[in-house]
Amino acid sequence: MTEQILHDSAFIMPGILIPLLPLIGFLINGLFGKYLPKAAASWLATSAILGSFLCTVYVFMNLNAADSVTIDLFQWIAFSKVNIGFSFLIDPLTVVMLLVITGIGFLIHLYSIGYMHDDEGVTRFFTYLNLFIFFMLLLVMGSNYLVMFIGWEGVGLCSYLLIGFWFKNDAYNNAAKKAFVMNRIGDLGFLLGMFFILFNFGTLEYGAVAEQASKLTPNSMLLVAITLLLFVGAMGKSAQLPLYTWLPDAMAGPTPVSALIHAATMVTAGIYMVVRSNVLFAMAPHTLDVILIVGVATSVFAAVIGLMQNDIKKVLAYSTVSQLGLMFAALGLGAFSSGMFHVVTHAFFKACLFLGSGSVIHALHGEQDIRKMGGLKKLIPITYLTFITASFAISGFPLLSGFFSKDEILAHAFEQNKLVWGILSISSMITAFYMFRLVYLTFFGTFRGTDETKKHIHESPITITLPLIALCILSVFGGILGLPSVFHATHLFATYLSSVTEPSKAFLYEHEAISHSAELMLMAFAGIAAIASIWFAYQKYVTKGEQPADEASLTGLNKWISNKFYVDELYDKAVVKPMLVLSDLFMVVVDKLIIDLSVNAIAWFVGLTGRITRLFQTGNTGFYIFAMVLSMVVLFVIRLLA
Amino acid sequence: MITLFLLGFPLLASLLTLASGNKLASKLALVLSVVQLAITAYAYSIYKQQGAEAFYFFQEWISNPKISIHLGLDGLSLLMVALTNFLTPLIILSAFNRTIERAAGYFSLILLMQFALNGVFMAMDGMLYYIFWELALIPIYFIALRWGGPNRVPVTLKFFIYTLAGSLLMLFGFIMLYWYNPNQSFDIRDLYNASICACKQGWLFWTFFLAFAIKIPIVPFHTWQADTYKEAPTQGTMLLSGIMLKMGTYSLLRWLLPILPAGVAEWGPLAITLCVVGIVYASVIAIMQQDLKKLLAYSSVAHVGLISAGIFALNMQGFQGSVVQMLAHGVNVVGLFFCADIIFNRTNTLNIDSLGGIRNLAPKFNTLFMIVVLGSVALPLTNGFIGEFLLLFGVYEYNTWLSVFAGLTIILGAVYMLRMFQRTMLGNVSENITTFPDLMWNEKIVLGVIAAVIILLGVYPKPVFDIAEPALQLILDKSIVK
Amino acid sequence: MGETTLQAIPQNWYLLLSTFLFCIGVIGVLFRRNAIIILMCVELMLNAVNLLLVSFSAYANNADGQVFVFFIMVVAAAEVAVGLALLVSIYRNVMSTDIDVLSKLKG
To answer: Which of A428, A529, B37, B139 gives a 20 to 30 Å CA spacing to A232?
Structure first.
């Protein structure tokens, strides 16, 4: 017992430091930033994250895979009936997320030093970025749902602040607001899910909740309700159908933000949450089915839209939505560790892609339209090499990281449901195609912009290329973490997470694992499909040199795809406009006409009484006396007659 | 003795300020209100050591009908008194660097208001409470009438008569309570133990509920509010929205629920439904408001609607949430109205469509305004979140579907607040704004203190829970019909 | 008990006389416009009542009625004093004692 306490106490200090360092960075930059030189502010913020990363590495080195450490800080919302502590939980799942957040977070901070160098709001940018990391760390470190919720909403706030970072542009502000509000819709689901949990289980601590839940009958109404509500939260945060439209718009933020928040970390919070509650979800197969359907649908839907996008960042954004769908599909199949594995590899290559696109945009002085790019591979070789490598990774090119993580999910799909496997395979092929459409249009062929721009194209500085190279290496070798059993290697990742995902195993239907030969077949098929798509894209865009058609000339299905199936317009017509009309209606009709008028009617009635009675006050003394005498007579008569 | 001193000091301060003349008035009022805050802090330390008994004060006043000067300060009252005495110095400070005519009268009335509000929260005798309740109306009436906007006369009249009508019903209710309770007194102890026949509680409920519903205000009794907020001078609006509304919600807890449990059992479902409908209704209206002050007024209706809903949910988390949210809303709404005042002071308009881009000119103001807005949209780690979380959880326990509906407030709240913030602060600098000096020293202090409290209370609300718990437990026990 | 002088006349006559006087007063008040005459008519009505009180007092052998009469006379005197003072000031203002001129207070 004492050993246990000693062992736990070794983690308290680094455990607290991990979120504390970014918070300190935020506070210093936020309060005293204007007294600091820009470079100092940015390096301060970056080193704070580096500090967190080092603490995380320390924790990772010392924490056994089967361990979990709880750090109680203080009682937060605590009185007789409700007792929610502000406490952290460090277990393998947390550590994985911590490594991704602080590791990639550090690289992106480093990148931002170069990328944001000329912006007037550098200090502000790093302040927000530190705040974001702080909230993201709270999200993954919390030991109960409410602390997770702090981080959950906190990252939403930072996302809002950073999407609208260039606040003079109203389109960006609208995008920021949209992101916040759509996330809030999901948050309401999350909040209600928490109420269900708190009311029925009396606690929000993950461990206690899982323990209480496992006593219930699987698939009971309560569990399905809880998990569905939590999943609504995840839909908002992780941009799943139908709450995905904010993510493409969120590309309004600076590119490092897109890489950090809208690709690598924040949007994967939904997956983290589901994996964190894996026992609840495993006990509610109905919810898992819903997740599977939503995930698969999002994966295909977003991939299809990605085919016709011409903004380099928008393509990546839809790709992110699509990949998140894939991860949710994995969760829907009950393959929690596979989903997490894809979170990690996706973080590597998608961050690399976004940062690469940032480097391209940087080189072209803000140009984002791929129709005005082309032939950049010689001009910015490092960016080109890292970008194309990451594209191979995301496309599932054999032996790169994306290949293994995708393949794992596809194998699970094949085991359980051939149809899902088919759709996800198609989605993967589409992904490979549009990613290489992007690569070829950007880096191959000839430059299509103005000569003036071309003159100024130059490779980015070291602070930008270094993170690119680091992430590129990770995207190539990240697959080693999760080699499939065919290769007679241990699945390091799944083993590491096993203590977290183990409890849910008991509730999942055990599917017969596919044979090694079948698995090899699948891998071969996936690899060939990816290569075929890439080759097809090469034929179309390099050999034939096709260009994306002008949006106005599109017809039929193409037009629909190019306009993102008019989902934004639909929401606008179906939700936003009616809401505004309702607001006016309430104000003008209900408030002014019905309520206020009835209030005023009472006052008017009192006034009317006054106006009528005052008619008797003629001021004529004779009349008063006459009235007096008359009333006396009348009273007499009544008295006598009675 | 401390009780009397705590109650009486603002009255003394009010008289001193009135006598001090226009030049000195604001400074003297500030100093005296800070002294009052210090007295409150001292009272809190006594409360920590000796509990609520230390504040018991009883003095016969009128023997027939039996009315006594019975004062007390339990956890609930202490928090409300603390809110009042915390906000008053800020409200007074917010009037610095503004030209205010007849300043002595103005600040004296603010302090008189503070006296009356302290009295409302400390009175433990029905009639004494009623006197303070009505007394609070007088200073605010004159503040709005003499220092208000151009349309102040009809608006103030409407406000005055509307609330007075409600109060009269309450007076009637109190008189009936006097006759119906076996001891024939207004004392809260007698009223709590009166166990009035359930047959009479039904309509007695309405006499009190209407008075409180108008003051809070609960939809559909809210139509006096937006205009009054718009016309009253900033300090008046702050007093009204920050503290005076809390009289209503406080009174629900103190005077309605424990005295008329059967009435609450009968009509509570209707009341909570009204509250929840009001939340959504007011939030939706707030979305399209063009006038900043009116927008804030409607957002306030939505927030206090949730507070009342949590109270009528009749459970501990609803009560605790309502107390935290009363404090939070008091602080936040004062901050918001002050931000509106800062904008009006520099631009002479409150129409959000003709504003914009202020962030470019006043970054400090932007940051503090943002924090207050975030508190108001209930972001975790701000005070608003603690309140809304518990209130919604309280409503959830009462009825799941109702909580879904009430929960829309977190979405709609984000919609109208962020829209307002975007239109006023973000984007390019509007043509109507030529200069926008950043915060002056007094503005920095007021908004800084408010921002600090927003975060402090959001991170560590436990002391509030601890203070409120025993008082709320007592009220809860009395409020539920066995 | 012996018959007093007052009792020599049957009581009905007193009643008739005072009714008659009272009616004159009422009619005067109702139909005259001059404030002085109205005041006089009011006095007339008061005196009608006084007469009645005195006669009843005599018939009933009870002094209460006469005490009342003294009260009424005192009040009437005071009333006339105030009333006439008012009249004088009214006359100074409007140069008339016609009550129809005085209608400024109408609602």
So the answer is: A428
CB contact under 8 A, A621 and C107: no
All structural domains of chain C, each given as residue ranges with its CATH number in brackets, are 33-97 (1.10.287.3510)
CB-CB under 8 Å, A167 with B223: no
Q: Which of C31, C102, C107 sits opposite A617 (nearest CB)?
A: C107
Residue A373: inside a domain: yes
Quote the mean pLDDT of chain B. Answer: 91
- Where do runs of H (alpha helix) occur along B103-252? 103-122, 126-135, 137-147, 152-180, 188-192, 198-215, 225-231, 234-238, 245-251
Report pLDDT for A449: 76
Whole-angstrom distance, CA of residue C13 vs CA of residue A594: 70
Residue with token string 């499909």 = A529
The count of domains in chain A is 2
Position A462 scores a pLDDT of 84
Judging contacts by C-beta atoms under 8 Å, the chain B residues touching residue A157 are 374, 379
pLDDT over 90 (residue B333): yes
pLDDT for B99 beyond 60: yes
Q: Which chain C residue shows the shortest CA-CA distance from A622?
A: C30
> Would A144 be classed as within a structural domain?
no
Q: A595 and A510 in one domain?
A: no
CB A453 within 8 A of CB A365: yes
A428 and A444 co-located in one domain: yes
Q: Where are chain B's structural domains?
A: 269-482
C107 interaction partners in chain A (CB closer than 8 Å): 613-617, 619
Q: Are residues A313 and A375 in the same domain?
A: yes
C102 touches chain A (CB under 8 A): yes
Q: What does the pLDDT average to over B163-179?
A: 91
Q: Does A627 lie in the same domain as A506?
A: no
Residues A615, A484 within the same domain: no
**Inter-residue contact C41 to C24 (CB < 8 Å):** yes
- Neighboring chain B residues of A586 at a CB cutoff of 8 Å: 281, 284-285
Q: How far is A640 from chain C (nearest CA, A)?
A: 17
Q: pLDDT digit string (tens) for A259-292?
A: 888 888 888 899 999 999 888 888 888 899 999 9
Name the domain boundary from A527, A562, A597.
A562
Report d(CA B413, CA B300) in Å as an integer: 10
> Does residue A225 sit at the B interface (CB-CB below 8 Å)?
no
C-alpha span between B277 and B298 (Å, rounded): 13
CB contact under 8 A, A173 and B422: yes
Interface contact A184-B460, CB threshold 8 A: no
Of the pLDDT bands very low, low, confident and very high (cuts 50, 70, 90), residue C1 is very low
How high is the pLDDT of residue C3? 67
Asked if A590 has any chain B CB less than 8 Å from its own CB, the reply is yes
- Considering only CB atoms, A621 lies closest to which of C26, C99, C107, namely C99
Domain-terminating residue out of A562, A589, A606: A562
A488 and A617 fall within a common domain: no
Q: Give per-residue pLDDT as tens, B245-270.
A: 999 999 999 999 999 999 999 999 99
Nearest to A153 by CA among B7, B384, B115: B384
Residues of C in contact with A625 (CB under 8 A): 29-30, 38
Examine residue B220 and say whether the peptide bond preceding it is cis (omega within 30 degrees of 0): yes
Asked whether residue A193 is assigned to any structural domain, the reply reads no
Q: How far apart are CA C64 and CA C57, in angstroms?
A: 7
CB contact under 8 A, B462 and A173: no
Query: Residue A416's domain spans which residues?
Result: 299-562
Q: Note whether A615 contacts C107, CB cutoff 8 Å.
A: yes
Query: Is residue A505 located within the same domain as residue A591?
Result: no
* Segment B42-58 mean pLDDT: 90
The per-residue pLDDT for range B266-279, each reduced to its tens digit, is 999 999 999 999 99
- State the average pLDDT over residues B160-165: 90
The conformational region for residue C31 under phi > 0 = left, psi -120 to 50 = alpha, else beta, is: alpha
Contacts for C54 with CB less than 8 Å, ≥ 6 apart: C6, C65, C66, C69
- Has residue A458 been placed in a domain? yes
Considering chain A, what percentage of its residues have pLDDT values greater than 70? 98
Is A629–C30 a contact, with Cβ atoms under 8 angstroms apart?
A: yes
Residues of chain A with pLDDT under 50: 1
pLDDT value at B153 more than 50 = yes
Q: Which of A277-286, B112-121, B130-139, B331-340 has the lowest mean pLDDT?
A: A277-286
